[in-house]
Structures are given as structure tokens and as C-alpha cells.
# Entry
Amino acid sequence: MTVLAETLRRCRAEGRAALVGYLPACFPDFEQGVANLRALVDGGVDVVEIGLPYSDPVLDGPVIARASDVALRAGSSIAHVLRTLEAVASTGVAALIMTYWNPVERYRVDRFAAAVADAGGSGLITPDLLPDEAEAWLAASDAYHLDRVFLVAPSSTDERIALTTRFCRGFVYAASVMGVTGVREQASTQAPALVARVRRYTDLPVGVGLGVGTAEQAAEVAQYADAVIVGSAFVRRVFEASADAPAAVRALAGELAAGVRGAPVGR
# Structure
């Protein structure tokens, strides 16, 4: 069992959702990126997603795309991302890499999987990879005992949800709105129905992402999801912080954790 699976099991036993926090590696540079990600842990995040900066982030909104550009300009590389993963995982938190598939393929899938396992990571979230096109990753994740998180969306057919959940391990990522990532004024009204559809096909935890930015929204999503995923709100805090970005990240994580922990999982 990976640290991720154990963490989600513990949260479920406590009758609450897990809080999942995302920030890109090397944002705004390597050292500050590690400090910001560790601040997520200090603030109460249960699971950390480490973004692998990519030059063509077609599924990301303007805030995360801008952060990726900052990281790449600072010299971000896969080696830096793996070092970041090791630094975050060493805290004992469940840590995954969220990445587009092209960098993994270029690095070589088996080599990448081995490096993630060596760094203490639990697995990968692959937003642009379909499980029926993921033969190499399925084999590598099995070989190195890594979790693999695929995405479903409101537009996914029942057949697609059934296929996707069959190959997921760790949790299922429910992208609760159509479109790119980013904080929204209201949590998605499509999310509860999507979570219910996913649960017809799997007992895996279901995490809801895209749009959560406040403690109130986090508490709302925690009523029906097993994990509340927050990304753009943390990235925005880093951009807005005049000096101490880790403190700003830690404060937001604390607010969101309080919201999640005050709302029992509605299963």
C-alpha cells in the first residue's frame, strides 16, 4: 500500500475528506518551490501534488500556466522535479507528480517510474493520458508499485468512466467542470452528480478538483467527495505574497484544512 492509499484510508476512517494541495515544482525557483510545497504540509494538507512544469499546458488556466512559465524560466528540469518530490516525501506526506505525458515519454516511462519510486513518491496524476493508451505506464506502475490517477469529467460517458476507474489506483480525479483549471466563484454544480456516477463503478476514493479556493467551497465539496483538490488558489497566493510566500501558502492551507475537517464525508 502506498503512502497515498494509506492516507486516504485514514481520512475515510476519520469520517472526513482529504485535502489535496497542488503547486508546481521550481516555482518561483527550486529552493522557494520546495519551501512552498512544505508549507502546504505544515498548513494541514494531507496529499501533495507536485506539478511538473511544461511548455504547453493546454489544460491549465492562466494562473498555473504562468507559474509553469516562471518555473521553466528559472531552469526547471525533471531532475529538479524529482529532487523536489524527494524533499516533500521525506516529510512523510503522500506526494505525487502531476504531469503531462510528453515529458514522461521523453524521459522513458520505466526510468521515470523508477525515479519516482526511489524518491518516495506514491505515483502520478496524468491529465492528458487515457488509460486505453497507457500500456507502458500501466506496466511500469505495476512494476514499481505506484498509484496511477486518471481523470474523468462531466462529459465522460458511463463506458469511459467504467474503463477509467478500472485502471485507476490511489484515487479517481473528477474534474468537476469543463474547461481549464482556475478558481471559481462557486463550486461546480456538476460535481456531485459526477462523483455519484463514478461511485457506481469503483470503491476507490474520488477527488474533486477545479475551482475550489475558499474554506467554504472546500467544506461544500467535502460533503460528497473523498478528497478536495486545490491548485490555482495556492499558486495565486504565491504570486500575491510580497515576501513570505510559504507563510501565505501555510495560512491558506490551514483555512482550507479547517473547512474540510469540519465537514464529514457524505457517502
Residues 3-261 form a domain with the TIM Barrel fold (CATH 3.20.20.70). The radius of gyration is 17 Å. Residues 178-187 have pLDDT under 50 and may be disordered.
